[in-house]
Amino acid sequence: MSNTEKFTVSGSQLVEKIKQLIHEGNIRRVRVLHEGRPVLEIPLSIGAPAAAIGILIAPILAALGAFAALVTECTIEVEKMEE
Predict the structure, then answer these.
(1) Sorting pLDDT into bands at 50, 70 and 90, what band is 77?
(2) DSSP characters for the chain?
């Protein structure tokens, strides 16, 4: 079973918030929405070590940083696994 949470952040806080959410460890999927439309969806495998996820996700975060510079506000939708 999963639980969905939404966070509204400014463009400058986007990358840091996603890094924080990924390091929490119980995240199944992260979606970035701008004006209600999905911009990026990051599926995360359950049980994968945080270091491996960090290495694989680095190019995506770099691209997301470029996007964040162009927007003033966006929404992060996080799907978490309930235990």
Answers:
(1) very high
(2) -EEEEEEEEEGGGHHHHHHHHHHHS-EEEEEEEETTEEEEEEE--TT--HHHHHHHHHHHHHHHHHHHTT-SEEEEEEEEE--
Which region holds residue 60: left if phi is over 0, alpha if psi is between -120 and 50, else beta? alpha
- Say what the pLDDT of residue 6 is: 93
Mean pLDDT calculated for residue range 27-45: 84
**Full-prediction pTM beyond 0.90?**
no
Please give the Cα distance from 25 to 39 (Å, whole number). 22
- For the chain, the domains span 19-70
- C-alpha 47/C-alpha 31 separation (Å) is 19
